[in-house]
Amino acid sequence: MSNTGPATQSANRYRVTVERLIPASPAAIFAVLADPRRHPDIDGSGSVKAPKVSGLHRLNSGASFGMKMQMGLPYSMMNTVIEYEESRRIAWRTTAPPPIGHLVGGRVWRYELTPVDGGTLVKETWDISEDRQRPFLQLFGLPAKTRANMARTLERLAELLERSGDQPATSTD
């Protein structure tokens, strides 16, 4: 387990943010986030099962990728990268696959990486401000549950990178 301590958390009405200092370089962290095959390895919710990609091993701006999911019942989501700055920021918008994609989804998962002494400050945000199910997603304590899952995701990301032996970054990265 990483010695960086627990993630810090914040939220507003439509966004939940969790951040954690991870003792690894932004490039090493980004390499994991930009590879959809690694998403099941770091997912703290247990719902991300397997990517649906053919030939795509590294995301880039505008890239689309599918993900097999399970929360009770199995389902799939389509994702499109909407923000991309190498080793600094990546975000994707999720929707259901056709024909219901225009009715379901719209949430954004965003990761922002800031090099600091001792590693990288990783900020993960779940943004439902434009999600078509926004009222439903706010029911039943989902933001709090998502926040806890996000903290586990950052913990798993830190553990994965610690096992890989990536060296801590400095603020000059």
Total beta-strand segments: 8
DSSP helix fraction? 10-25%
What's the overall geometry? globular
Count of helices? 4
How do the SSEs run, as a string of H and E?
EEHHEEEEEEHH
Mean pLDDT over the residues: 89
Give the strand line-up of the largest sheet.
Answer: 1-2-8-7-6-5-4-3
Let me know the largest β-sheet: 8 strands, antiparallel
Low-confidence stretches: 169-173
Strand content: 35-45%
Radius of gyration: 16 Å
Alpha-beta classification: alpha+beta
Cα end-to-end separation: 24 Å
Task: Characterise this structure.
The chain is of the alpha+beta class. 23% of the residues lie in helices and 38% in strands. The chain contains four helices and eight strands, in the order ββααββββββαα. The protein has helices at 26-33, 39-42, 134-137, 142-164, and strands at 8-11, 15-22, 48-52, 64-71, 73-85, 89-95, 105-116, 119-127. The protein has an eight-stranded antiparallel beta sheet with strand order 1-2-8-7-6-5-4-3, with helices on one face. A hairpin with a 3-residue loop joins strand 1 and strand 2 (15-22). The longest helix has 23 residues, at 142-164. The protein is globular, with a radius of gyration of 16 Å. The chain starts with 7 loop residues before the first strand and ends in a 9-residue tail after the last helix. Mean pLDDT is 89; it is low at 169-173.
Short account of what is shown:
This protein has 173 residues and is α+β, with helices and mostly antiparallel strands. It is 23% helix and 38% strand.
